[in-house]
Design a protein that fits this description.
Elements lengths: L9 E7 L5 H5 L7 H8 L4 H20 L10 E3 L5 E3 L1 H4 L5 E7 L2 E7 L4 E7 L7 H7 L2 H8 L6 H19 L11 E5 L3 E5 L9 E9 L2 E8 L5 E7 L11 E5 L3 E5 L2
Parallel strand pairs: 1-11, 11-13
Antiparallel strand pairs: 1-5, 2-3, 4-5, 6-10, 7-8, 9-10, 9-12
Helix pairs in contact: 2-3
Length: 262
């Protein structure tokens, strides 16, 4: 596969893991680093170990689709906020930025050449969607939007906002340096999405996509762009290839073009 170009292209790959067998995953874990295997073993619940391992297997195999090195030989470092990146000596030969996320039953990664990118996947209902939590963490405009939701929609809308916020924080790469109420998302129309950046940011630099792999999951992507258009290419990926039906884009910010397929 060709490397994403140096404009605004982003490849998104995701892998539903609920039906992945232990044997299937263990057969692929030899490509993980010692540190990744150690971290995986620290999870007490088996399905959490499965999803952590699957996420890192997915990332390593996806990165190698764009050229060498082999999956087992990728090495990563982290900045002081914990944001991972390819080590400089490997990145110099093949510049790739990535973001990785996993939740119970779904893992995903996004890959681009030089853009800041963040991806987040969440299981609806995984976090407590109590109104007092939104009022404590979210921007006032987002709290107002949630108050207008029907009771049966509240948990889904809450998690959609949460997923978008997590994707943005990952893309910025400073962890909780941006408090969740310092920026905001607004849903408009059937598929529209607007973003208000923190005081030190520029809303016009950012493009977002909110998607669903099923009614239970949400996936959000945040990309910092140079030009007026952000192009997203979406596909389901498993370590054996691309299969099935791609995720459904639900909402996008302006200036986003989506093509679906390998």
């Amino acid at each position: 596969m060709d490397r994403p170009d140096d404009t605004n292209d982003v490849d998104v790959w995701y892998w539903p893991t609920a039906r992945v067998s232990t044997a299937e995953l263990e057969a692929q874990q030899d490509i993980l680093s010692d540190d990744e295997r150690d971290r995986c073993d620290r999870f007490v619940v088996e399905r959490d170990r499965r999803d952590y391992a699957a996420a890192h297997v997915l990332l390593r195999r996806v990165l190698s689709l764009y050229g060498e090195p082999a999956p087992a030989t990728w090495r990563f470092s982290r900045n002081r906020h914990g944001r991972p990146s390819i080590v400089p000596e490997q990145a110099a030969a093949r510049p790739l930025n990535f973001s990785l996320s996993h939740t119970r039953g779904l893992v995903a990664c996004a890959v681009t050449s030089t853009r800041d990118v963040g991806i987040d996947v969440e299981l609806i209902g995984e976090k407590a969607a109590a109104p007092e939590l939104a009022e404590r963490l979210f921007a006032r405009s987002e709290v107002a939007m949630l108050r207008n939701c029907e009771p049966e929609e509240y948990a889904t809308r809450f998690m959609e906002l949460w997923t978008l916020k997590e994707a943005y924080i990952k893309a910025v790469g400073v962890g909780l340096g941006h408090s969740l109420d310092s920026f905001a998302f607004c849903f408009h129309g059937i598929t529209g999405l607007r973003f208000s950046a923190p005081p030190d940011g520029m809303s016009s630099q950012w493009r977002f996509m909110l998607g669903a792999s099923s009614s239970e999951y949400r996936l959000a992507l945040a990309v910092r762009c140079r030009g007026s258009e952000g192009a997203l290419r979406l596909a389901i990926h498993t370590p054996g290839g691309i299969v099935g039906t791609p995720l459904t884009p639900l909402r996008t910010s302006s200036g986003v073009a989506i093509s679906v397929g390998p």
